[in-house]
Write a structure and sequence with these properties.
The protein is built from 5 helices and 14 strands. By secondary structure, it is of the alpha+beta class. It has 2 domains: 2-84 and 239-260, Immunoglobulin-like, CATH 2.60.40; 94-237, C8orf32 fold. The radius of gyration is 19 Å and the shape is globular.
């Protein structure tokens, strides 16, 4: 077990004044079998009231109405997470499982990914979990990590054709491959030690529970991971959404730190 302290800060700067906006923030770590969350604090600027709720996937979210004129909106969320309490993440909700069996949105495959699956088909292990790990290992070997060549709207098919991308792309491609071999899978957003931004990985269904695997780093999810939310693809897990009046163009700054608190 580890005690991880996290600090997630996002700032959005607008070229023109925003007179008002509705906002939704999904940046609250999730209570699971693997992790326990404590001492969470939320700071918003402008300092406006907000409410707490959950989306259709059970992810915690902050939402509210900001009627204070501003050219900068920011939030900072801090807290402690005890990780490594279990290898399992959550028990599977059978009523929701069908949602994670089929392609959706950004994890849809193209001809190139279908051809890649066909090439690997003869090597796939019989056991479903081993099959998932095999696909993760092969993807890690055959896809290149590179920042700046994809964006939040890049699909699994597009990233595969490029042959390179970031954690979001690894996750979308692996989900597409897992669907091809009959394994329910879902997209996960969160944080890990040593990174300055959010991270993405995958959960697979096994024996009534969800288990995390990280294709970007080619490992099962372990003690250094803080889970925030899940969905069918990255669009379901966006950290920040808003509908605003005014604002013009915008730039976004994100700073994330995750550190282990060690006992002396």
């Amino acid at each position: 077990m580890k005690k991880l302290t996290f600090d997630y800060y996002m700032q959005i700067d607008y070229s023109e004044t925003v007179s008002s906006c509705h906002f939704t923030i999904k940046c609250l770590p999730k209570e699971t079998l693997r992790q326990r969350v404590e001492n969470v604090k939320v700071l918003l600027s402008p300092d406006v009231p907000y409410s707490m709720g959950r989306d259709s996937f059970g992810n915690a979210q902050i939402y509210g109405w900001d009627d204070v004129a501003h050219t900068t909106f920011s939030f900072r969320i801090t807290g402690d997470v005890y990780t490594g309490l279990d290898r399992r993440e959550e028990q599977i909700d059978e009523d929701m499982l069908a949602v994670f069996r089929h392609p959706h949105g950004l994890n849809r495959a193209g001809e190139g990914l279908f051809a890649y699956h066909e090439k690997l088909a003869g090597e796939l292990p019989a056991d479903a979990y081993e099959r998932a790990l095999f696909l993760m290992h092969r993807l890690h070997e055959d896809f290149v990590y590179e920042k700046g060549c994809t964006d939040v709207g890049t699909t699994a098919a597009e990233a595969w054709e490029l042959g390179r991308g970031v954690c979001q792309d690894y996750a979308h491609i692996l989900i597409a491959l897992l669907h091809m071999v009959g394994i329910p899978a879902r997209y996960v957003t969160g944080m890990i030690s040593g990174e300055g931004a959010s991270h993405a990985w995958v959960e697979i269904a096994k024996d009534g529970f969800w288990y995390g695997i990280d294709p970007t780093n080619d490992i099962p999810v372990g003690d250094d991971y803080i889970k925030i939310g899940v969905g069918r693809d990255a669009a379901d897990c966006l950290i920040n959404r808003g509908i605003m009046h005014g604002g013009g163009s915008q730039t976004q700054t994100v700073r994330v730190s995750v550190n282990e608190e060690r006992k002396d």
